[in-house]
Design a protein that fits this description.
The complex is a heterodimer of chains A (187) and B (302). Chain A has 187 residues and is mostly helical. Chain A is built from seven helices and no strands. Chain A is globular and about 50 Å long. In chain B, 28% of the residues lie in helices and 23% in strands. Chain B is built from seven helices and twelve strands. In chain B, helix 1 packs across helix 3. The longest helix of chain B has 19 residues. Classes of the chains: A mainly alpha (187), B alpha+beta (302). The interface between A and B is large, with 97 and 94 residues.
């Protein structure tokens, strides 16, 4: 697809449209902004498709990573541009329950297991942070935790997750490739 | 995602002490300008989503991948369908993207000399009329993030070929490698009697393949695929150099002259040091994982 193959480009939308749209909806401030963000994200995915490596991540995680990166950048830029007082001080309700385990790609299943190994406070802060890319400041306001504590929980929580997932090695990486996927692995 | 640890305790991690916290912040909430500068001063090139141009999903972006995996675990892959307006906008964006990549015209290799004479010139097709064919040729089952093997871009066959020949003409590291039968484990190639050469320049990242005696595709369901073996990556990480057809397919920039098929090479990723080029027969659109059972020719760079 890196070469711009039409069928692949469209199928990429078919496969990951829901994922990208959901991420954009919750990490932007308006539908109009989400519309724009989705286009930006897909173009970014198409352009960078050649960099995908099945040994590193599943395709779903790869797309989610690009989407999150772009959305976080947009959010920071937006926060700088608009009146901060007009932004909600507290995040909207974050879903308590995760998705059905059966519906997860393997990588997410492993992440679910890894998250269980974090402290409850680390889990709480990470959920708030990951859900919308909220700043430490807003999470501190929302939770009543000191800002330093929020930072520590977020950083250590993510680093711990990374360490656990990394330690699990290659097993399961790119597992959604075989799940009826049309996306094939980079040699 | 890459294994790693926390900052300087990361064992084999390449991440400098002090950078891990910033990388975690970057993956979760983004960085301020000054924080980004701090990372830059640490020698980490992490401005892009992949941590820089030369590192795909490496040690640094593993923080981003971890956050993405946690996101999927916590909130799922998204059950909402794309709104119609967004889908339409994306389809338009997709068409623009493909157009930019493929250029404005394609040349039919079905045009043998006889066909060329009948047509009076090479057959040309507006991209808009070829998208349907491309989708079919790609075979939806072939997508891939690195995904689909490259279909050569270019404005037109002549322009593209001229550009490549010009690049090769001015490059000082041009190598020529002769095609030979590709035997593996005592088994010969599927096509015999194919000859020709590869002309390639690492510095120009361009090259040409010349074939004589390469059989026309048996049908539209299969195509030839180029594999580039980079000395710095090895055979296991061979690079798909794209697909092409010798007859029924359509390959941008290729030409057929006096019985010799000439096909341009555009490596989809940087080839550090080309060691060999090999051709297999694959399903139409190519594959990203070849079992190398249907081998044709191979050319080793001396």
């Amino acid at each position: 697809m890196a070469g711009g193959e039409a069928g692949a480009v469209r199928e990429c939308i078919d496969r990951f449209g829901g994922l990208v749209w959901s991420l954009a909806r919750r990490m932007t401030y308006s539908e109009a902004e989400a519309d724009d963000a989705v286009q930006e994200i897909f173009v970014e995915v198409w352009k960078n498709a050649g960099r995908y490596d099945v040994k590193v991540a599943s395709e779903t995680a790869f797309v989610a990573m690009i989407a999150r990166r772009r959305l976080i950048d947009r959010r920071r830029k937006r926060d700088r541009q608009i009146d901060r007082h007009s932004l909600p001080e507290t995040p909207p309700a974050v879903p308590d329950a995760g998705p059905e385990r059966a519906s997860m790609v393997e990588e997410a299943r492993r992440a679910t297991d890894a998250i269980e190994l974090l402290s409850s406070e680390q889990q709480r802060v990470l959920r708030l942070s990951i859900f919308q890319g909220l700043s430490h400041e807003k999470i501190a306001t929302s939770t009543g935790l000191p800002m330093g504590t929020v930072k520590t929980h977020a950083r250590r929580g993510l680093m711990k997750l990374r360490e656990i997932l990394g330690a699990q090695g290659e097993t399961g990486r790119g597992a959604d490739i075989s799940n009826g996927s049309t996306l094939e692995a980079k040699p | 995602m890459s294994a790693g640890g926390e900052g300087s305790n990361a064992g084999h991690s390449l991440i400098p002490a002090g950078a891990a916290e910033l990388l975690a912040d970057r993956a979760l909430v983004g960085l301020s300008h000054s924080e980004q500068q701090t990372l830059d001063e640490m020698g980490l090139n992490v401005r892009g989503p992949f941590g820089g141009a030369e590192c795909a999903a490496d040690e640094y972006s593993s923080f981003d991948l971890t956050a993405a995996a946690a996101d999927l675990a916590m909130f799922g892959v998204g059950a909402e369908a794309l709104p119609g307006r967004v889908r339409r906008a994306l389809d338009e964006a997709a068409e623009r993207f493909v157009s930019e990549r493929l250029g404005v015209a394609l040349i039919s290799l079905a045009g043998s000399e006889r066909d060329d004479r009948q047509a009076g010139t090479r057959s040309r097709f507006a991209l808009s009329n070829r998208l349907g064919w491309l989708a079919a040729a790609a075979g939806i089952a072939l997508a891939a993030l690195a995904w689909l093997p490259r279909v050569w871009p270019g404005v037109s066959g002549g322009d593209e070929m001229g550009r490549i020949e010009s690049a090769l003409g001015s490059a000082r590291d041009v190598v020529r490698a002769t095609w030979g039968p590709w035997e593996l484990n005592g088994e010969g190639p599927e096509c015999k009697g194919v000859s020709g050469e590869v002309v390639w320049s690492d510095s120009a990242q361009s090259g040409l393949m010349k074939f004589t005696g390469l059989p026309a595709n048996a049908d539209e369901s299969q195509q030839y695929q180029l594999w580039i073996i980079d000395a710095t990556r090895g055979m296991e990480q061979r690079i798909s150099g794209g697909v092409f057809s010798a007859r029924l397919g359509t390959t941008v920039g290729a030409r057929s002259t006096a019985g010799q098929l000439v096909v341009p090479i555009h490596a989809p990723i940087h080839v550090n040091k080309a060691a060999a080029f090999a051709i297999t027969i694959e399903k139409s659109g190519g594959t990203w994982v070849s079992d190398m059972k249907r081998r044709v020719v191979i050319a080793s760079v001396k």
